[in-house]
Amino acid sequence: MTHNLDSTQTAVVSHDNKWIPISVQEPPQGAKCLVIDDTQGLAYVRAYQPFAGWTHWFPLPVFPKDEK
User: Fold this and answer.
1) Rounded CA separation 60/49 (Å)
2) Which of 6, 8, 27, 56 is most solvent-facing, going by the fewest CB within 10 Å?
3) Separation CA 61–CA 14 (nearest Å)
4) pTM of the predicted protein model
5) Which domain holds residue 43?
6) Looking at the domain assignment, is residue 67 inside a domain?
7) What is the pLDDT of residue 68?
8) How many domains in the chain?
C-alpha cells in the first residue's frame, strides 16, 4: 500500500485506492459505503441512496484475517 501526507500535510492519502464514479458503477442501493461529492471534498459513511448528490463511492475497508 502506498500512502503519504497530502500537499497540505493535514491528510493521509492513498495512491493505490481510487474513488469509483457513480456514473461508471453505482453501489447497491441502501448499502453502507463511503460516499463523496467531489465539489465538497468531504467523505461520509452512508447507506447509499440515488439522487442524494454523491458523485463517487468506495467500499468500506475490512480488517485482515489473522493468518495462523
Assistant:
1) 16
2) 8
3) 13
4) 0.82
5) 17-58
6) no
7) 58
8) 1
